[in-house]
Amino acid sequence: KGEGNGMDVPRVMVCVTRQKTCERLIKVGQKLVNGSGGKLTVVHVTKVGVHVLGNPDEGEALDYLFQISKQAGADMTVLRSENVLNTLLDYARKNDITEIVMGESPDPGSGNSMIQNMEYMLPGTKFDVVPS
Predict the structure, then answer these.
(1) Nearest 5 degrees, angle CA 5-CA 11-CA 14?
(2) How far is CA 114 from the centre of its chain?
(3) What is the model's pLDDT at position 50?
(4) pLDDT reported for residue 46
(5) Got the DSSP string for the chain?
(6) Quick one: CA dihedral 14, 102, 106, 121, positive or negative?
(7) Residue 48: what pLDDT?
(8) What confidence score (pLDDT) does residue 111 get?
(9) DSSP state letter for 61
(10) CA distance 79 to 82
């Protein structure tokens, strides 16, 4: 949809977890849109019922990432969902995301299967997996 009208402008989505180390993912995203007039969005999906405020470190990490996102010229969106994968896919589709930046494995134990699933579900999207 929308062939030819600015399809070459990158719309980059950076998936972050509640860790300050995700700062480098935002920096990678920033480089991708740099000077292109593209749009950078930082997205964090938190499971329903997980108290962000319950863990001061995590709350602080999210605040920190908000600041970093702002400095990078990005909007940061925090979504609540039972299904992280579907929520990210949904968001990527709705926002016509052209490129997704993720850390190696967002979920200890799930390996990189989530990333593989996303690549499979979003065939036209470029993925940048940043090693931790």
Answers:
(1) 170
(2) 13
(3) 63
(4) 86
(5) --TTSSTTS-EEEEE--SSGGGHHHHHHHHHHHTTTT-EEEEEEEE-TT--GGGSHHHHHHHHHHHHHHHHTT-EEEEEE-S-HHHHHHHHHHHTT--EEEEES-SSTTTTTHHHHHHHHH-TTSEEEEEP-
(6) positive
(7) 74
(8) 61
(9) H
(10) 10
Q: What is the mean pLDDT of each run of 10 residues along the chain (132 residues)?
A: 58 94 97 93 85 71 96 95 94 97 72 86 95 80
Domains of the chain and any CATH numbers: 11-130 (3.40.50.620)
Q: Decide if 118 contacts 88 (C-beta within 8 A).
A: yes
Which two three-digit tokens encode residue 117? Answer: 């699933």
In the numeric block, the tokens 């593989």 are attached to 116
The position carrying tokens 């609540």 is 80
Query: What residues pair up with 128 in beta bridges, in sequence order?
Result: 101
Q: What tokens were used for 111?
A: 């390996």
- Please, are residues 75 and 41 in contact by the beta-carbon 8 Å criterion? yes
